[in-house]
Specification:
Length: 113
């Protein structure tokens, strides 16, 4: 499978994983959190948390700050703004009258004729 390079796709894919979404929610609720505190609540091992944090970091969701021997992670405000912008750009299309909503197959056939 081809790896996506579109930064918006990477941002959305990173947040779509249940464990990563849980990490993002925790960081959103609590602010900076030490990586060592994320394993037990997430119900995964520390190496797994490290992998998820790497994915979030590469997608632009989080930054890490070394404090002694630990790394504290926080959500990047610009990632939140990008996410909001993506969500704001998705809306229902304009309403159309029922007569304009013919079946896709009949419209395709008419276009070929």
């Amino acid at each position: 499978m081809k790896r996506m390079v579109d930064p918006d796709v990477r941002l959305l894919q990173a947040a779509a994983d249940p464990t990563r979404l849980a990490i993002l929610r925790r960081l959103s609720d609590e602010g900076p959190v030490c990586a060592c505190e994320l394993a037990d609540p997430a119900g995964v091992s520390q190496p797994t948390v490290s992998h998820h944090l790497k994915v979030l970091r590469e997608a632009g969701w989080v930054d890490g700050e070394r404090r002694g021997s630990w790394i504290w992670y926080s959500i990047r405000p610009d990632a939140v703004e990008r996410f909001r912008g993506l969500a704001a750009g998705i809306a229902p299309g304009a309403a159309r009258p029922a007569s304009a909503l013919g079946s896709g197959a009949s419209q395709a056939a008419a276009a070929r004729d």
